[in-house]
Write a structure and sequence with these properties.
Length: 443
């Protein structure tokens, strides 16, 4: 039976999603004369830009997660609910979460995006993507298990496949993963094995576009490619993956088709709007783009519904230069802040001009002492960029939580190449270990 939650008469704002978009909306409403209900299917906010460091053993999941309840413990007007929203009823102004119905006056949908396998959903298990903590742990398991299995493998061909890592997608996630795996293989793990030389590992980065990091200026993209190549990463641009099957990845560059045996194929290409886009489309008739993102109006509402906003990766905002804004944290953050201000203005009978995104720059980490910073007016590479990247990430990580100690520990581990979080965990790891008579390492 449906149960409506209490409503004490104040304007009810319901936010679905505690990622960057939802979190910043709620934070900027913390002192407003409204009730805020923030719903998320996870009980923590996840700092996704550092997921690749969990996947490659530098950080632990808790280091990049902030419990939502702790973030809002002092915001007395904010209630946090754990649960997955499966429907909305825009006429009755209700959000439906299992058997709970939550009424709203204003609704903000900020449920983000998922991976897209361009219609090849059967590749999902063969080439996992990186979006959740579980994804990062699974990637970590596959990466470190591959080295472990190679250490025991006597067949040279099988060993080569175990030591071949293929990363599909040359955007920031693909570049960061490739750089981190190269550092692992060629530096961190070099002394740790007896039967294999980890520096024989092959790390292949396949990019569909004609350069890596196509969102930054061509000169910096060239520096990024050269730095990756110096680390040992093989980059193939203008390359499309055509098949993944039985640990073989097949790809096409021009007319040339190549098939490579690899036990570790990682997916860092393509995104699509989360399933809430479909729910919104069905219930309100709003249009979605080809990537399943909701087309939003200049004020981030959806057509015909002045009280429903979409912020962050789920939305397609194309009112600035005709192109959709990128799916990055600063867009979600600024949109969240804008919607919070607009709600308060409206309650005073006023409004705001259309949303405008202020581009703050692009950063990408390639490896130790190697990063790329493009602030438009300032471009940095190498060590300076790396220090800048560290400072920016330390700042963001400590914004919600008193994680100073963790953050400085991380910076120290990073500087000293200490990868203490390289645990092989999860159910799969347990089954694998039992099958191979290896004693399971405790979590
Ligand atoms: C691996 C990776 C690396 C990245 N690196 C960078 C980077 O370096 N710089 C950068 O700027 N950006 C980066 N991004 C992008 C950035 O993280 C996103 O743009 C940003 O997180 C978008 O925020 P959001 O609020 O729209 O969605 P998200 O942060 O994805 O949050 C969505 C939230 O909604 C919740 N949710 C989803 N569906 C439901 C439901 N039905 N009911 C309840 N809750 C639900 C989810 O649990 C989640 O908490 C990266 C992303 C990834 C995946």
């Amino acid at each position: 039976m449906a149960v409506a939650l209490d409503n004490n008469g104040r304007h009810q704002v319901v936010i679905i999603g505690g990622g960057f978009g939802g979190l910043y909306t709620a934070k900027h409403l913390a002192k407003a004369n409204v009730n805020v209900t923030l719903i998320d299917k996870r009980n923590f906010h996840l700092f996704q830009p550092l997921l690749y460091q969990v996947a490659t053993g530098t950080l632990s999941p808790a280091d990049i997660s902030s419990p939502l309840r702790a973030v809002f413990s002092k915001s007395k007007n904010t209630q946090v609910l754990l649960g997955e929203v499966n429907d909305i009823d825009p006429k009755a102004q209700q959000v439906i979460m299992g058997d709970k119905v939550i009424p709203y006056d204003t609704l903000i949908v900020a449920t983000g995006a998922n991976h897209s396998y361009f219609g090849k959903d059967n590749w999902k298990d063969l080439a996992p993507g990186l979006k959740t903590v579980e994804d990062a742990i699974e990637m970590r398991r596959r990466i470190f298990s591959a080295f472990e299995a190679a250490e025991k493998e006597t067949d040279l061909e099988k060993r080569r496949a175990l030591l071949t890592f293929v990363i599909v997608g040359g955007g920031p996630t693909g570049v960061e993963l490739a750089g981190a795996i190269a550092e692992l293989a060629y530096k961190t793990l070099k002394e740790d094995f007896r039967n294999i030389d980890t520096s024989e590992a092959k790390i292949l980065l396949l990019q569909g576009a004609d350069r890596v990091l196509p969102h930054i200026s061509p000169d910096l993209s060239e520096v990024a490619a050269a730095s990756l190549q110096k680390l040992g990463v093989i980059i193939q641009t203008n390359t499309r993956v055509t098949n993944i099957e039985n640990n073989i990845v097949t790809f096409k560059q021009g007319d040339e088709v190549t098939a490579i045996a690899s036990k570790t194929i990682l997916w860092a290409a393509g995104v699509q709007g989360s399933p809430m886009a479909k729910v919104l489309a069905e219930r309100t008739g709003v249009e979605c783009d080809r990537s399943g993102r909701v087309i939003v109006e200049p004020d981030l509402t959806i057509k015909g519904y002045r009280n429903i906003f979409v912020v962050g990766d789920l939305g397609n905002f194309s009112h600035q230069d005709g192109k959709p804004l990128p799916g990055v944290a600063p867009v979600a953050k600024q949109q969240g802040e804008y919607v919070a201000r607009l709600i308060q203005k409206r309650l005073q009978g006023q409004t705001l001009p259309a949303f405008h995104y202020n581009h703050v720059g692009s950063l990408a980490m390639i490896g130790q002492n190697l990063a790329i910073v493009d602030l438009g007016f300032l471009k940095l590479t190498g060590f300076l960029a790396w220090v800048f990247w560290l400072i920016v990430h330390i700042y963001f990580l400590i914004e919600f939580d008193t994680k100073l100690l963790v953050v400085f520990q991380w910076a120290w581990n990073y500087i000293t190449r200490n990868r203490r979080s390289r645990l092989i965990t999860g159910r799969e790891a347990y089954v694998e270990a039992k099958t191979n008579n290896i004693t399971q390492v405790a979590n």
